[in-house]
Design a protein that fits this description.
Blueprint: H1 2-6, H2 14-18, H3 35-46, H4 52-74
């Protein structure tokens, strides 16, 4: 459950990512932009099922996921860039 809730910060529409302005949200200095909003959403939806310990764990996970999401978003790819690793299903031999 924590992974699913923490991952909420990773997903959004491409248009929303382009419209992002880091100055439009006030957060603590040690947390990425949007962390407080996501934590508030999680607490509003699931607060009655979460303990203080759960909330503290979620705070760390959501902040970490937001940092990763911002790093991925900042990395420019060209239209023709491929993955670093190609996946092939194992069919008994290579």
């Amino acid at each position: 459950m924590f992974a699913a809730l923490g991952g909420a910060g990773l997903f959004g529409t491409p248009g929303a990512a382009d419209e992002h302005d880091p100055e439009d949200v006030s957060v603590e200095d040690d947390r990425p932009v949007g962390t407080e909003a996501l934590l508030q959403l999680i607490e509003d939806e699931y607060g009655d099922m979460l303990t203080e310990e759960d909330i503290e764990q979620l705070e760390a996970e959501v902040a970490s996921n937001r940092e990763v999401a911002m790093s991925v978003r900042d990395f420019d790819l060209a239209n023709g860039d491929d993955m670093a690793m190609t996946f092939r299903a194992y069919r008994g031999s290579y």
